[in-house]
Amino acid sequence: MDMFRFYYYAGIPLATNILFYSITSLSTSISSSQNVVKFITEHKDCDSIVFKKEIEEIDLENKLRIVESLVYDIIRKFSVNKDEFEKTKKEIQNPQITDNETVGSSDSGSGFEFTVVELSNKTSVLDRIDEPLKYSVIGVSETLHNISEILVDIRKKINLHQNSYIRNFIALSLKNELHKLNKQTKVLDIRTNMLLDLLKIYLPFVKRRK
To answer: Where in the chain are the domains?
Structure first.
């Protein structure tokens, strides 16, 4: 999520491109997380069983579904009609993205280097979403990306342990990963609640605009 941080720290105005990118990333992260959770919970290793119980306790799978539904509901609310919403949803699920020039570098002293992403098809719905809501959705997306990375690391760790001779001598340990997962889940709760609070403020104005 270096691109997100660049926009935050460099003070670049939040455009439709970065919001589109974040929502697309959010959908990908949720799908990846759900697949990894299924993979991990099917294993009978002691720590995998502990992980499964932890997932159930933090209600992660349900939170993933709720966040995805919430983001699409925001897009639906800002759409002028059902056709526009369906078109935007299709573009998010099948993005047509082209890379533009690289901006910033360590040589220039900016401390940042990333590729500007341009959308082949601009989506007007995302332009209508109020700026605070855009930042909030991006924050939620970043957290989900972090959760997805932790889960992918756990899957890799399980595979490495299974294919190693040391599995007969050393038990698999996922304590560090579970600690990171719990930390990011708390952040997700905070950011999701903030998004819900912002929706209480802005959605009434959306109805008036229509």
So the answer is: 2-209
